[in-house]
């Protein structure tokens, strides 16, 4: 199961990288968002997938699932959500003010 | 357990939150933000005295014992940086009152400023790797807003690049955290240090260490500085000075923490890489500083030279070099904010940042000119100003570990820095005075006090080194001996 997840994470990373390297700003934002999902899955996989029972005191299991990665992912999701929203707004505003959504032309010139 | 450790994070956070509600009342926001910064400064002085008498101060959040809860740790290194942060942000804030403009003030400038300080202080105080990520994000998100606040074409263009670069490096940070968690099963820095010392730093662990190095290099502009010249020259000068003084320094702090506390077992690999990157950063930064004729560009390239030089101390990894690095880090935070503020005042007065169009400012503004001269000498390390002592110690350290090339690069680049900064002085301040006082685009009213304050700070840091070096030595001691940090965090509890 871990192997399968690792392949999936790699797939998400490569799709995200491809999108980030493209020119359109909207694609770049989407690429960043896809990589963030890949990262979350990676944290989940790294903690070890389901190995035991619920991590609660009342459950009389011999082994428990590690709950920490899920807490980490929860935080990471919230932060990524906020950052993606802010990034979208900045890109949209750039499109409105500068009038381009092509990252090639974002270089600017010396005379400004 | 000491609740004071949390105050430098809580004070600016709550002050910022209150200010969001009272958005229209700008006078209140100004007064309250100054109050919050001063209070943070007072708390950090208090923390310093406590650490000096009682050792490293810790707080386990929610009362959960060390590896299970989140630990906040204040050692002397953190406390010194906290105090410097307060000084720098105080001056940038005063500078912003007279230069930032009504529109930005009404669009949540002050709350974002304080949230940035929250993130910076949080990064200095946290003892947990994931918490470090969260504090980094708090700091970065506020910096995204500050860099694009105002919405001019140049700012927006640069902020897209800045945001994307930082998002990618944050992803890599999370990836590195995930790998480290899989190998050690903990994220508490002290616990990580113990576990890695137990199992040894093998090849896989060193690879993860290098991943962390890449992440923090991106934030600290160590070699991966491609984003820096553009994004630091876009925002208004008060914000750029704050960024130059604080943001890259947080990355440097994280590098110091990780490579003295956690990954210190293979210095011939990791620390050598840091040394090579530091040397390249110094050289490339100095070449950039010499090549440009634009005040903002010259100053931003000088930021990189500073970063590279501090890293040379970490690469040598001897007590002397570390003392030099810590001392130079404090000096660098103050001096970078100072030269940015003076450069900003020059741009403010003349309306241009092109050096060739500026001349003879010393005729109308003698104080500004001489303070720039002092700052330039201090930056390039002329005794008795503050840059000198750090340079001596770091160079001595590089010679002790036989990294002669690194010490040589450091000395050559200080000459190049002196040349680049004297270029501003000779072109901008000397020569014929074109501009009479009523032809100027702005006034220096209110801008001189923060500049003077920082100039005094750099002189005091140099002349009064005797008094400060005692604190710096304490910081070095806790950095070079991870066991003090570990003991303070665990306090004799059993480690699982």
Automatic annotation (TrEMBL), chain A:
The chain crosses the membrane at residues 6-21, 28-47, 67-90. It comes from the Bacteria. InterPro entries: CPA3_antiporter_subunitC, NUOK/Mnh_C1-like. Gene3D superfamilies: 1.10.287.3510. Keywords: Cell membrane, Membrane, Transmembrane, Transmembrane helix. It is found in: Cell membrane. The keyword Hydrolase does not apply. It is a multi-pass membrane protein. Its main location: membrane. Belongs to the CPA3 antiporters (TC 2.A.63) subunit C family. PANTHER family: ANTIPORTER SUBUNIT MNHC2-RELATED. This is Multicomponent Na+:H+ antiporter subunit C. It comes from Peribacillus huizhouensis.
UniProtKB/TrEMBL annotation, chain B:
Residues 127-416 form the NADH:quinone oxidoreductase/Mrp antiporter transmembrane domain. This is Multicomponent Na+:H+ antiporter subunit D. InterPro entries: CPA3_Na-H_Antiporter_D (IPR050586), NADH_UbQ_OxRdtase (IPR003918), ND/Mrp_TM (IPR001750). The keyword Transport applies. It comes from the Bacteria. The chain crosses the membrane at residues 6-22, 34-52, 72-96, 108-124, 130-150, 162-183, 203-228, 237-256, 268-292, 299-320, 326-349, 361-383, 403-426, 447-469. It is found in: Cell membrane; Membrane. The keyword Oxidoreductase does not apply. It is a multi-pass membrane protein. Keywords: Antiport, Cell membrane, Membrane, Transmembrane, Transmembrane helix, Transport. Its main location: membrane.
């Amino acid at each position: 199961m871990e192997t399968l997840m690792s392949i999936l994470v790699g797939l998400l990373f490569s799709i995200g990288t491809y999108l980030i390297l493209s020119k359109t700003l909207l694609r770049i934002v989407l690429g960043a968002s896809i990589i963030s999902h890949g990262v979350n899955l990676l944290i989940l996989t790294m903690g070890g997938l389901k190995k035991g029972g619920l991590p609660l005191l009342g459950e009389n299991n011999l082994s428990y699932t590690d709950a920490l990665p899920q807490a980490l992912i929860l935080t990471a999701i919230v932060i990524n959500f906020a950052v993606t929203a802010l990034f979208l707004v900045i890109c949209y505003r750039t499109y409105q003010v500068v009038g381009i959504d092509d990252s090639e032309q974002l270089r600017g010139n010396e005379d400004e | 357990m000491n609740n004071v450790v949390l105050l430098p994070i809580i004070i600016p956070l709550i002050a910022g939150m209150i200010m969001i509600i009272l958005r229209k009342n700008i006078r209140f926001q100004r007064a309250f933000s100054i109050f919050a910064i001063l209070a943070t400064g007072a708390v950090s002085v208090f923390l310093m005295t406590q650490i000096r008498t009682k050792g490293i101060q810790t707080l386990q959040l929610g009362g959960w014992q060390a590896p299970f809860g989140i630990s906040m740790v204040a050692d002397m290194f953190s406390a010194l940086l906290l105090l410097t942060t307060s000084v720098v942000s105080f001056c940038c804030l005063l500078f912003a009152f007279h230069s930032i403009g009504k529109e930005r003030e009404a669009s949540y400038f002050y709350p974002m400023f304080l949230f940035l300080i929250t993130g910076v202080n949080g990064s200095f105080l946290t003892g947990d790797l994931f918490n470090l990520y969260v504090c980094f994000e708090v700091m970065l998100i506020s910096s995204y807003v500050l860099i694009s606040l105002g919405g001019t074409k140049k700012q927006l263009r640069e902020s897209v690049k800045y945001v994307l670069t930082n998002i990618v490096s944050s992803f890599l940070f999370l990836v590195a955290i995930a790998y480290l968690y899989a190998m050690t099963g903990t994220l508490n820095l002290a616990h990580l240090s113990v576990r890695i010392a137990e199992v040894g730093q093998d090849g896989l662990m060193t690879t993860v260490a290098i991943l962390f190095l890449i992440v923090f290099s991106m934030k600290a502009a160590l070699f991966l500085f491609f984003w820096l010249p553009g994004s630091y020259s876009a925002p208004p000068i008060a914000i750029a000075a704050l960024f130059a003084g604080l943001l890259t320094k947080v990355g440097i702090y994280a590098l110091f923490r990780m490579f003295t506390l956690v990954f210190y077992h293979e210095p011939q690999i990791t620390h050598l890489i840091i040394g090579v990157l530091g040397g390249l950063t110094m050289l490339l930064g100095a070449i950039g500083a010499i090549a440009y004729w634009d005040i903002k560009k010259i100053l931003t390239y000088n930021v990189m030279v500073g970063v590279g030089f501090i890293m040379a101390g970490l690469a040598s990894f001897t007590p002397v070099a570390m003392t030099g690095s810590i001392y130079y880090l404090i000096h660098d935070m103050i001096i970078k904010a100072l030269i940015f503020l003076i450069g900003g005042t020059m741009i403010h007065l003349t309306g241009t940042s092109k050096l060739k169009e500026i001349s003879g400012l010393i005729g109308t503004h003698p104080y500004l000119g001489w303070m720039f001269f002092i700052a330039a000498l201090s930056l390039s390390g002329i005794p008795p100003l503050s840059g000198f002592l750090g340079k001596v110690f770091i160079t001595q350290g590089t010679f002790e570990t036989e990294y002669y090339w690194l010490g040589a690069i450091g000395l050559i680049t200080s000459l190049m820095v002196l040349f680049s900064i004297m270029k501003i002085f000779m072109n901008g301040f000397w020569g014929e005075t074109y501009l009479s006082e009523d032809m100027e685009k702005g006034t220096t009213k209110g801008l001189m006090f923060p500049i003077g304050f920082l100039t005094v700070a750099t002189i005091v840091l140099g002349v009064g080194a005797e008094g400060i070096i005692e604190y710096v030595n304490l910081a070095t001691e806790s950095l070079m001996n991870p066991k003090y940090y570990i003991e303070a965090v665990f306090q004799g509890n059993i480690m699982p």
